Amino acid sequence: MTNTRSLLETLSxxxxxxxxxxEVVRTAVExxxxxxxxxxxxxxxNAVGILRCGKPNAKRILFSAHLDEIGFIxxxxxxxxxxxxxxxxxxxxxxxxxxxxxxxxxxxxxxxxCLPPHVLSAEEMDRSFPMEDLRIDPGLSKEDVLKTIPxxxxxxxxxxxxxxxxxxxxxxxxDDRACFVAALLALEKLKGxxxxxxxxxxxxxxxEIDHGGATVGTFSLDxxxxxxxxxxxxxxxxxxxxxTDCVLGAGPAVAFGPNHTPWVRDRLFSLARQKEIxxxxxxxxxxxxxxxxxxxxxxxxxxxxxxxxxxRYMHTPMETISVQDIESLADLLAALMEAPGWEGDCR
Amino acid sequence: xxxxLRELCQVPGISxxxxxxxxxxxxxxRPHVQDMKVDAVGNLIAWKAGRRKAKNELxxxxxxxxxxxxxxxxxxxxxxxxxxxxxxxxxxVIGKKVLVGKARIPGAIGLRAYHLVxxxxxxxxxxxxxxYIDIGATGKEDAQKLVQIGDEILFDSDWVEFxxxxxxxxxxxxxxxCAAMIRLIQSELPVDCTFVFSAQEEVGARGAFGAAxxxxxxxxxxxxxTTAADLPELKEHRQVTRVGAGPVLGLMDRQTLYDRELFxxxxxxxxxxGIPWQTKRxxxxxxxxxxxxxxxxxxxxxxxxxxxxxxHTPSSTASLNDCEQLYVLAERFIETIxxxxxxx
Amino acid sequence: MDILTALQELxxxxxxxxxxxxxxxxxxxxxxxxxxxTHVDALGNLILHKKGTGPKLLFAAHMDSIGLMVxxxxxxxxxxxxxxxxxPAENILYTPVRFLSGIxxxxxxxxxxxxxxxxxxxxxxxxxxxxxxxxAEQVRIGDTxxxxxxxxxxxxxxxxxxxxxxxxCLALLKAMESIDKSPNDLYFVFTVQExxxxxxxxxxxxxxxxxxxVVCDVTPAGDQPGSKHYGSSRLGGGAAIKVMDxxxxxxxxxxxxxxALAEKNGITAQNDVIVKGGTDAGPLxxxxxxxxxxxxxxxxxxxHTPQEMADLxxxESCAALLSAFAESALPALR
Lengths: 347, 344, 334
Fold this sequence. Notes:
Largest sheet of chain B: 7 strands, mixed
CATH topology of the largest domain in chain B: Aminopeptidase
CATH architecture of the largest domain in chain C: 3-Layer(aba) Sandwich
Structural class of chain C: alpha+beta
Number of helices of chain B: 8
Shape of chain B: globular
Oligomer: heterotrimer
Strand content of chain C: 25-35%
Strand order of the largest sheet of chain B: 1-2-12-3-13-15-14
């Protein structure tokens, strides 16, 4: 039985910002291989794993968890310091003094600059510096810097995964590799059992910038049902009920809203009740900001829903999740894989 | 037109919760179409044979969904916290009556009594996340018996005819388009047409993508309700459109450059048949055309809209005559499709 | 092809997004003998096909330009307008414009408007009409206008309106001229409606279903005084090989391939990351099952203003890199 924590740590430590996911994708394919009939990297760069049921005219369910993380990209240099832009959405307040892994081959260590308090006025100390005013310090001379680290080189938060308390883990890229782990655990539960439908797990790329991986993956795989597995905000002291409907440790969240086809959502709740899997109800009143948004409108439109893992501190290097939640999420996904309840789709 | 529109406006159908309006429309059109289906996102697609096949396949569409709200949370005292579905101006929701959930539980979007509001507070409109609905529950448990997270919340707004030729109702956007389409479907048409009553337009033209991909028309005509801002505090050029000045012919909005030849065709038709018409004086808004135009190998798109004041509020207002002219102009447009000799 | 003459010809065309016919006809004339098939699709994209047996390679350059559309005629004869594509108010103050009919005018602000917060709502076009009636005799609601500013060659630099995107169209046309033998199945698409939202490329890509795509556009250079570094390239630094813009991160394989070709053929090139501005690469790379997409761009200053600047040497480098890519052996993907 796979160790959830070690899987999370392996995936969290890999560098793979949107557009530059090759290493994570290769690892993901290796992890999919023993659990599927076919696992490969598709033309676009996504990881794909297909578990065939062997029945004629079988329907197909596509699960997508994205492998890319937010990151940075070098845009120029000044006096040996690198200018950079974000890949995906990043809070600039996370950045002063932040350690990075710059994705040269081999990787380079860098620190995001931070003016010391001694030279700042009281007002400046209160201010958040916009990204365009920050630089990365790779410790190189100004002659060498762009030769070693050319314009266009990506970078990520330096990895640092650790356990917290009995049930929580903390690290970068839990969004959304923790959900990919849940998908792997779900596939494991299906091993050796006969199925009625084909299951495809897509380790998608580019979710953080344009959901490109899920858009092309869904078109290419042409499924009958789509499930996007992504993270959702869990309550924190400064992000309480006004901001989020979810807490850590109370199970995966199933959503209400236009991106979530009612019969699929109802099926998930009913399976959760049957199998006594704790779940939380959340509302996404419009765009879900997940792969599910693009999957739903692929070709002629596909029944879709989003199942979410509660996460604190999203888009920081300290994303915090509950291991128990991942395991409940895996149970719920496996239940849907085995019995999606096609009869609920009475169109 | 009036009776049909009145009925359609009263039926619930928030984006993602279109079951009732879809069933209502389906019942009205079933005897008049060759085939009908509901797709994965909830669009109602109907095929109607005309006197002949067209050289250019025509799709006509109006969206059946309306804006509304959804229950996010029931708080400890039994008040409901909610979020908007579609674009809603929060200034227009304060102190309004709503209907919550399938059981249509009446509620009020509350706001502290004026006596308790300071001069400073009066200047600020609270965030939607700070507003709440009171359904008269005695506490959280009592409220949870009636209402659940994810329930839809409708504007409660009746149909009123007032002033000269004016109507007030919720959801004129886009039941005016649906009404025109139903009238077209109920009459004899010169050419085969595919009609789509689309779902989830208000949250991003969501239904239109799949419907257009499935149908692959050459030409699509979108029938809509659009913003009228003909109020005295605005300079003329910022008024977008004016109620009573006739249907709005689509030239350009924030998401689409409409097919030029089709716009000229509509302009010429309106002139020829004495139908009042106008264009947007300020570029704003978007329609299902944004999804349809770039589907598959591309679709030529046109739009005709009814100007609606106070659009996306419970008290939206339009001119009945504008609604009638929408139908008339659409009918004339279909005739030109029937008369096309070759692919354009 | 002489770039300057060809640019003059293209600039004489009136072709804002949605009305690309004039420039399409012009480009079609220029390419008659260089391709096997020509097709114009429902939205007006010009699709040129030079047949080959290898993988499908799509080159895209948008032929539409930004412009204005008349939305309202004031009683005093001034015209109100909407923008076609991105047109910040500060870029177009007192700019000469010209309508398809030849009517000319200038863009002026409402005298009472706050200059520090100008929006398009504060602007008018003055065509010299004395009242609404006289104006209505010359223009109609829906008529479009384009910049009416000159094209000049300053040493090796061009100063002209609409280098976005005519200079890239010319780079592509020059590349087409010099493609000798290509193992690939080549499509050259001059797209429509890029400026208001990257619209034409999507259906063109769907219809062609390519394996690879290369987009040719201009890219904002970061070499002006007080530059905010929205773009990493500089004029004279060579063909800008696209790594990232706001609509795409190019597949590393494509970036590496283009860089290797540039090096092998002695073509001056530079890496290009921009943080403002998207291109047709956006819709191209996510078409159908995905398309490996790159970009070869002409660095350009003052984009979307009445006088943009680019370096002819960069244009030549782009043309050379595009034709080298067209002639290169690409792995079959299906």
